[in-house]
Amino acid sequence: MRIDAHQHYWKLARGDYGWLTPEQGVLYRDYGPNELRPELSRRHIDRTIVVQAAPTVEETRYLLKLCEREESLAGVVGWVDLEADDVEQMLDELAASPYFKGVRPMLQDLGDDAYIVRDKVLRSLGMLVERGLTLDILVRSRHLPYVAQMLDLVPGIPAVIDHIAKPDIAGGEREPWLSGMETVAEHENVYVKLSGMVTEADLANWTEADIRPYVTEVCRMFGPERLMFGSDWPVCLLAASYEEVVSLVERTLPEAWKAEERAAVFGGNAARFYRIR
Fold first, then answer.
1. What is the pTM for the complete model shown?
2. Which domain holds residue 265?
């Protein structure tokens, strides 16, 4: 089974996508399964994981309902307030749906880079572990030391770094991204999504040569058993088509990797991580 482990759907009229403004260009409209379905078919992608794009439980409920009528959807990575007094009840409510796979706090947008190691947040992350739920980690390089600290404090939490931690590819960033990722990679319960890379490069002029060094490093650190392909559609449309992002990951994986290792990146690892049958 081939899986796209990271994509989004949204409906502007829902009103909770604060970051979606007319300045976002091609992104400032509704995106739904009818548009993505032909792309999935062309690239033989069987299922996808849809990831929250708004910091609201209401959006998570919307995505869970969407799963009930869209066959290509395998699960939802949603959002809850990890510091709320009712977080445990909220997790239980959402987890009543078999499509609820985990949560993603939008860490890159928060004022406190150390949010992930606050006491209340750590307690809530422990609740994820107890329920077999996952944590998607949306961060930049500066957050990685706090992510590593969290991983020590919540041992064994099933976690995945989105978008290879969003290094400044356009600016050629190496450090502190590389050192931060090396430390995170020491935790065997942590995966990485090969996603969101073209939008960290020069949107109009990126090349495979710009992206390849970052993929090479992540492949070295995490190996074929802890990487997942994600398109980040439709956000990727700022820089590339669905076809282009699939082909980019296919071409930049190590040539020496066997067919079964490539298949793991394009589905097997996501199926195991998100408990997809």
1. 0.97
2. 3-273
